[in-house]
Design goal:
38% of the residues lie in helices and 18% in strands. By secondary structure, it is of the alpha/beta class. A hairpin with a 7-residue loop joins β6 and β7. α1 packs across α2 and α7 packs across α8.
Length: 273
């Protein structure tokens, strides 16, 4: 795989979104098949993935625990990125809570569960309308100065919010929803390109609807790939700052996704999408 820089880190350009290793619709509690979830995480590393994206809210806390159980002590060069700022009072609930005390509690828990002294990439999961962004981002900046966070990232932000945050602390990554079929964050992606900020598209295959697009299926048949591989290859070609993080609970899907890095879409094929 080719590599991408996140601050002073260099990782391969296909990561793993570790939410779906909790293989239930609500991303709540334990996975139905814990042994399989651990196998998926280990297989990802075997396939060359050295960047995992997770969050305190996945489970909550379960995804981080599984990552450490599967891989600690971590391979050299392996990067775990995690996120803070969402509360999970129950299944199906994802409530913004970016109060400084919540963010600090999230960080301490993540450090403990991941068995780390410092998080390489710590991301604010969302913008909390009840808490000024300057306060939330300022808290992450404080954590960085304390040596508990290496780099700071944002998720689910606008260009204006990104600019505001960058006045407080260096932002090395942005994680927004983006896929071949959902390009509402195009302006954020262009901003990241201009300023050398890594862009992590979450939901890179959408709800599966991307895979049913006629133009995607047509191109997949033409080049001998699967629709998922076409969708990921399109993201990789779309921008040099793009770091897709597709998630799955199945080894077969994981191996299929990794196969996308071998596709090199020509300009005509790329434009057709």
């Amino acid at each position: 795989m080719s590599t991408i820089r996140i601050g002073d880190l260099a990782v391969n350009r296909l990561g793993l979104g570790a939410m779906r290793v909790i293989d239930n619709d609500d991303i709540w509690g334990e996975p139905k098949d814990r042994a399989n979830s651990l196998k998926v995480l280990r297989r990802a590393v075997e396939l060359g993935i050295d960047f995992f994206d997770t969050a305190e809210s996945y489970g909550p806390q379960t995804s981080e625990t599984l990552i450490a159980e599967a891989l600690y002590p971590y391979p050299r060069g392996f990067v775990v990125a995690t996120k803070c700022g969402l509360a999970r009072p129950g299944p199906g609930r994802w409530d913004a809570d970016c109060r400084p005390e919540k963010l600090r509690k999230d960080l301490e828990g993540s450090l403990r569960r991941l068995k780390l002294e410092r998080i390489d990439l710590y991301q604010l999961h969302t913008v909390d309308p009840k808490v000024p962004l300057e306060v939330s981002v300022g808290t992450l900046a404080d954590m960085q100065r304390e040596g508990k966070v290496r780099h700071v990232g944002l998720s689910n932000v606008t260009v204006r919010e990104l600019e505001k945050a960058r006045k407080i602390v260096t932002i090395v990554s942005v994680q927004n929803r983006y896929s071949l079929a959902d390009r509402k964050s195009e302006d954020v992606l262009l901003y990241c390109e201009k300023h050398g900020i890594a862009f992590l598209p979450w939901y890179p295959l959408g709800d599966g609807s991307v895979l049913t697009l006629s133009r995607v299926k047509k191109l997949a048949a033409k080049v001998g790939a699967t629709p998922a591989q076409i969708a990921i290859a399109w993201l990789l070609k779309k921008s040099p700052v793009m770091l897709p993080i597709p998630g799955t609970s199945k080894i077969a899907h994981l191996e299929e996704n990794v196969g996308a890095v071998r596709l090199n879409l020509g300009e005509e094929d790329f434009s057709s999408l």
